[in-house]
Amino acid sequence: MKEDLNNVIDFDGVNKGKIPADSFIIAMKRFIQRILQAESEKETHRLVDYMIDMSLNLWPSNNDIEEVLNQLFPQNLLVSNSLAAYEYVLQKKKSMGNKPIAINTFNSQTIASSSLDIKSSPSRSIHSSRKGKKVDRSKFDAM
After folding, report:
1. Which residues lie within the region annotated Disordered (predicted)?
2. Within-domain flag for 132
3. Residue 109 domain-assigned?
4. From the CB of residue 132, how many other CB atoms can be counted at a distance below 10 Å?
């Protein structure tokens, strides 16, 4: 199992022809939570049959992943191997010293380029549209 996973998983994030480790970890976690917790009699089924089924929405959004999965996902893994495969890839990813897995990540450059320049914005008060209106805030304070 480990050799099969090592051959098809991209732990470094540089080989576009392999399955990204982060995506694999997310998909396996979703599979275990959604499928295995609901139905346990599928232990002898091939894991690939579930992992390439895009209708299960196991994989993070990626247009290229389906083709890679169909070509590379190990055929000999069973559903009963899913937790071991998940733990192996997760531990190997951590031991390689790669960044932690995150579905939504932002770097400081992205945030800086999308933030507003406060100094160039108009100096109009944001409360000017509420002038003269009384707002009962007591009902909000209780929350």
Report:
1. 118-143
2. no
3. no
4. 5
